Amino acid sequence: xxxxxxxxxxxxxxxxxxxxxxxxxxxxxxxxxxxxxxxxxxxxxxxxxxxxxxxxxxxxxxxxxxxxxxxxxxxxxxxxxxxxxxxxxxxxxxxxxxxxxxxxxxxxxxxxxxxxxxxxxxxxxxxxxxxxxxxxxxxxxxxxxxxxxxxxxxxxxxxxxxxxxxxxxxxxxxxxxxxxxxxxxxxxxxxxxxxxxxxxxxxxxxxxxxxxxxxxxxxxxxxxxxxxxxxxxxxxxxxxxxxxxxxxxxxxxxxxxxxxxxxxxxxxxxxxxxxxx
Length: 277
Known about the structure:
This protein is mainly α. 68% of the residues lie in helices and 3% in strands. The N and C termini lie close together (8 Å).
């Protein structure tokens, strides 16, 4: 037996968009739920991989130059793989997990408009993914500058710009993967293909198609803010200005998140009832 959830809440459950107390409560619940899941702990361990790589390199007695390590590990491995994978793990199952765990009914009974429910859960995934990215960035920067006398301040000063660039990218990544989770029952495979093919390949090709990727503006901002020069076939002199890169990432996030809220509001969900599960 299945239970069908209509695409719109009943009139008695309608609530104004400015129900901030209800949204903040849902935000807290979603954050606690995400941090208790296996995906979070997998993401946390994955986030520490770059720092572990640097530590292993140092144990061999031949640590590479700091700039080279930042380019290869932080703007290479982290920006191209770990950051989007974190967003995919957290955002793609925001609603599908509720369906599979039979908790969607309780979610929809909250006195909040459906789009606000989705956007609040998406905000939780964004906040958590940014936190993980900040932790991973600080850990690897601290490892890179371990021999520097003022390594803590240096690591903090470089973590700030990198986290800001990653945060802008995570706004867009979470919005994209959240929408993917609404459209597909198993979005993870498609999400991995998206990361490998579009972000991992086209963003590294000096052709106009790279401007359709999220990774490209993130790298442009990070290279400029850290004064690392031209890398990844990016000519900073001809690359889009910072304001355009920021507007692109925020614009993608806003448009796709709004589309996700609309899809969620108009979708019907069939779940098994607890008595017949």
